Amino acid sequence: MTTLAPFTNEPVLELRRASERTKLADGLRELRLPLQVPVWIGDEQRFGEEIVSTDPGRPERVVAVAARATPAEADAAVATARAAFGAWAATPVGERAAALLRAAAWMRERRASLAALAVRECAKPWTESDADVCEAIDFLEFYARGALELQDEESAAPAGAQLLQVPGERNALRYVPRGVCAVIAPWNFPLAIPTGMTAAALATGNTVVLKPAEQAPGCGLRVVEALRAGGVPPDAIALLPGEGEAGAALASNPDVATIAFTGSQPVGLELLRTAAQPKDDARQLTRVVAEMGGKNCIIVDSDADLDEAIPAIIDSAFHYAGQKCSAAARVLVHEALHDALVERLAGAVAGLQVGPADEFETDVPPVIEHEAQERVQHYAAIAAETGEIVTGGPEVPADGWYVAPVIATGLPPDSRLLREEIFGPLLTVEPVRDVDEAMERIDALPVALTGGLFSRNPRTVQRVIDRSPVGNLYINRATTGAMVGRQPFGGNRLSGTGTKAGGHDYLLHFVEPRVVTENTVRHGLVV
Amino acid sequence: MGPSASLESDIRRVGTALFEAFPSHRGNPLKALDDRAMDLAAQDAELRAALFRFVDVVPACRSLDDLAAHLTSFLGEIDEQPPSLRAAMRMGDTKAGRAALGAAGAAGVRHMAHRFIVGEDPQAALPVLRRLWRDGIAASVDLLGEATVTAQEADRYAARCAGALETLAGAYAQMDAQPLLERDASGPLPRANLSVKVSALTPLLRPEAPARGQRDAAPRLRALLRQAKELGAHLHIDMESLDSREAVLELVLNLLAEPEFADGPSAGVVLQAYLRDSPQTLDTILASAQQTRRAQPLVVRLVKGAYWDHEVVEARQHGWSVPVFERKADCDANFEALTARLLEARPLLRVAIASHNLRSVAHAIARNELLGGAPGDVEFQVLRGLGDDLGQALAASGLRVRSYCPVGDLVAGMAYLVRRLLENTANESFLADQAQGVPVAQLLAAPEASLS
Ligand SMILES: Cc1cc2nc3c(=O)[nH]c(=O)nc-3n(C[C@H](O)[C@H](O)[C@H](O)COP(=O)(O)OP(=O)(O)OC[C@H]3O[C@@H](n4cnc5c(N)ncnc54)[C@H](O)[C@@H]3O)c2cc1C
């Protein structure tokens, strides 16, 4: 049996030290762009120029040039992965885990360069790009260990697999991989999330076709390189740069056993719908592991410490320009503190620096693409029309997909801005009579991903814990920055299928339990 | 006897004499906090947590009822409640009981706060400052405030500092001469003295981008330096957590190197001995002082450091190596090594030893004697409300003492108060040892640093 040191999180760089900042800056200087990203199935590479990812802060700078996978290529990738499934599934879990750990080591050796790529391709600022790389490494390390716990035949059976045994019969429950897993990944955690979903599938013995977001094919390439360098067989992990068409082809391919998806709600729901209607020739039900959006609320009660709440709210709403599914979108504040909070938040936002992701001084980077910029501006216009924008907004560079961070108040209760996920630096603030009223409003939402509470009364804290529907509730801290093994992450209601990335039960979604019962009585004798 | 053996015997002599000079004879500074709550808190971790959480939230409570609700819900989390607490919990059951409980709780906290905080504003602090001066103790005023999260708040804080400098300079000008407090071997010493925090002068301190906070704070700090120079006052820049050290130290050293400040004001920085790399920080300070000869030498206040728990927790949460010493004796030994280096660096620098630890202080006195310094050639600093007895004993022994006096309202004062209370109920605090009656010989024993 393989034993590994207990999991610990990969430490983020201590960027308060100048020497550590220099490492990252060097990584960026040494980055050679653009990357060429092929459709990569087994050992076959087809290069192309149909997809181009650019630096959101300087759209004329090309980061990666990628082929766009056709539906036929999607099917070919699935066929290859399916052919490779038997061998990979039969590879001892210890060897599969070792491959993931080597992939983690590969990434660890390239931390600065990988972070630099995320800075360029997704305009993810340094601290967060560095954390993204760490999280990718964490997923590899964590799921490698998780698979060993779940599937190593020589280790004690996991708790869920322990069965009642009576004389004359031997019962065993094993978790076996499901087959081909299509991973459809987002751009906002361009390394961590594709690595996480892929690693979970591979660790448990599935083969994978990874479709990275069309905004981040370069990061997707690095993920696949890491896994292959670590020793995952080429046929077991395909790279399928592409757009919606490729995703749809994967979703409707009956040989796809599992779809692991993180992204927008419309796409996620469509995947669930497709999967729920098996084709006539289907031989397996497709399982969908989906992480979708939220409308994340932070409650500020009257006894909150605004000195702590304000920086945490600013972080939650505006870091990475609000482009995290965990980002705060609404603040529901006790009416007694409303005016003070709004005034101080507005002042804090006025001091935020909007700028390129590669500058350590930047607070708010550009959003991912032109369409996103227009979307956020559109919502800001609605806010101005139907409510009040209280932030003058810091200055915004002219080129690049920048938007000023905005705080809006005084919106009508039925405003779209209080319901729809904006996925940008726009935060609404509304007064509430008390925490119970806040909880009612939150309960009325169809989504339930993250939530926050600032209160210093243990009874209030308990009340909110008891009533909160969200997948991840944060008390007296920011609502973003979930860590593998510490804050298993994922939403409820329409925010997701209730799975928890980076948690102990996540791998169960990538396996199916099989029970074997053997009669051990032979001629009245227990053998 | 070798030099270290003789130094040790000097430290024992000096320390014992100082101990004898403590006004309240047993030398127990915590007894002055007559609250039984504090005694209890020092013994019981849960109770301590409840008490601090209550103190912390008092200013945010909207009514006596709200106060009582918080108090009882903190106390409710304690597993084994002493009878007095059970009685308090029962009071929480009725409206009248809650009003009484809330009033008592708030009064208790206000009472505690007044030990540490000398007034709501500098004007209100003057009677205390005058009394201290008359008793031969100088002061440094610290303006407590809420966290600075906006530019307006930074401006308001800077304006409060400017007002404080005016008030202090005016008031101190009226006071009688105190020769020991007004001159050392390097020349005259300002009477008015203000301590400021850079985090209050800018909302933009970012650990990963120190230049940003520096740029933003520079104009406000520069204006204060100019004003201090005009008024002949001293401006001291406190040190905060490691996240801002680079920003703060560089900012201050760079500003002081600007030509307009070559002939004033008197200014100072803080060196934190709990940081493992503090010897290198002292190198930086010394190099800067070499390069920038100023009319009034830079004052270096040597402290252990007030953010120990924060630094340890932050490092552990991130998986970083802990930047502070983790053995108290290592921190104390480093404090002594830095004391020696600082004293030897005079007259390039002026030295202020800020500690309530009898051993650390006695060591500095003995070391100063060994180096042939006059008693007034090193300053001792204590915190108002914690180091009062030590301060008086030092003054009575003919040493130069300054008391650090926080000024501000209850809301602003709570964070400070909680930090001080934590510090003094911590297991590894000199004051706690002293309060528990550890014999003086033991209190004066040399810190044994681990081999490294
Ligand atoms: C006038 C004055 C000004 C001050 N200004 C500042 C300032 O600007 N910035 C600042 O940070 N602090 C400042 N301090 C606070 C100071 O840093 C200490 O927190 C405080 O004085 C307690 O130290 P001590 O020597 O009096 O007591 P002691 O009881 O001898 O020491 C307690 C200190 O030891 C350290 N410590 C505790 N446990 C451990 C451990 N396990 N391992 C290693 N070290 C440990 C901690 O620093 C703790 O505060 C100031 C203090 C005074 C008196």
Brief summary of the model shown:
The complex is a heterodimer of chains A (527) and B (452). With 527 residues, chain A is of the alpha/beta class. Chain A has helices at residues 18-29, 71-90, 93-109, 111-122, 126-151, 192-203, 217-230, 244-251, 265-276, 306-318, 335-350, 370-386, 435-443, 458-467; strands at residues 35-37, 39-41, 44-46, 51-55, 58-66, 169-177, 180-184, 207-211, 237-239, 256-262, 287-291, 296-300, 328-334, 388-389, 406-409, 426-432, 447-448, 450-454, 472-475, 492-493, 511-519, 521-522, 525-526.
- The CATH superfamily name of the largest domain in chain A is Aldehyde Dehydrogenase, Chain A, domain 1
CATH topology of the largest domain in chain A: Aldehyde Dehydrogenase, Chain A, domain 1
Q: How large is the count of helical segments of chain B?
A: 20
Task: Compute the separation of the termini of chain A in Å.
Answer: 26 Å
What is the CATH class designation of the largest domain in chain B?
A: Alpha Beta
Shape of chain B: globular
Main beta sheet of chain B: strand number and arrangement? 8 strands, parallel, barrel
Q: What would the principal axes of the Cα set say about the shape of chain A?
A: globular
Order of adjacent strands in the largest pleated sheet of chain A: 14-15-16-13-12-18-19
Rg of chain B computed from alpha carbons, rounded to a whole number of angstroms: 22 Å
Mean pLDDT of chain B: 92
Percent range of helical residues of chain B: 55-70%
User: Any idea what the CATH architecture of the largest domain in chain B is?
Assistant: Alpha-Beta Barrel
Highest-level CATH class of the largest domain in chain A: Alpha Beta
Topology, number of strands of chain B? 10
